[in-house]
Amino acid sequence: KRAKVSGRAELYQFQDFAIARAQFGMETELRRAIDNGELRLAYQPICDLSSGRVVSFEALARWTDRDGREHSPTNFIAVAEESGLIVPLGRWAIEEAARTLVRWDAAALTPCKIRMAVNLSAIQLQRDAIAPVLQAVLDSSGLSGDRFTLELTESAIVTDPDGIADTMHALKALGTTLAMDDFGTGYSNLAYLQKLPIDILKIDRSFVTGMLADRDKVSIVRAILSLAQALGMRTTAEGVETHELAQTLAALGCTYGQGYFYARPLEADAAYAMVQSGSAP
Ligand code: C2E
Ligand code: CA
Ligand code: CA
Ligand code: CA
Hints:
Helix content is 53%, strand content 18%. It is of the alpha/beta class.
């Protein structure tokens, strides 16, 4: 029996080693990808649920490597967070999002006030002075801070509540909108909601998908909506895949919707076409 157990342990060790080696390989490639410009951003519209109008885009990192393989953001963002590469990757994402806004502004016939939402990881918030980074981007691009929404997750608050409060106030001082991403999936207590300058709660897709056939999910979504309303915050529902969901969420009082019903994450040009037409196809 003992031999069997140790055989297993060795197997696990071997698997750990294999995973570690694969991650290291990906880390090396990702580092090169950042330097060589293999990353790009896809832009997914966030729409006003009652009018259907596009109000902003979420910038989502995409990586097609030299062999033409498309890597899953969930995987390479995790590798970036573990390796610290999220710091240069996150800076690049802010800079790239700003370049896109500047391009769109230049192409627009009427002043374009569309916003861009950029994801900030907890690790990046701890390790990088993100407010000065954003300030530098605003200075060099000429964009005003109110063109940016920054999406943070609860994990940032759990790991460093005091540090995060200072950072969030510094970001607010630049004019940005702050959104709490994947709301409802974290494990922190809710006291932070009244202490931190959060403008928008993003209701995680797991509560939205399938909610029309699940009373419990509807109850959770309702609870989040009334919490947000009581605290004077707006709400965005993720994973809005059907017209019926958009209608139901609008009726429940949710402010914005994001999901395949409106559009999948788009290349910059296709996203800009939506900016011009004003609404989802
Ligand atoms: P997220 O911030 O929750 O982003 C939304 C994810 O849901 C995106 O996945 C998007 O493609 C997907 N999605 C949007 N609408 C729908 C829908 O209607 N149905 C379904 N099934 N999915 C939908 P994606 O692009 O694979 O990104 C995964 C995660 O990777 C993001 O989740 C975010 O946490 C992270 N991520 C992506 N880009 C960045 C980045 O530049 N920085 C950081 N820190 N994280 C990023
Ligand atoms: Ca997000
Ligand atoms: Ca999200
Ligand atoms: Ca999510």
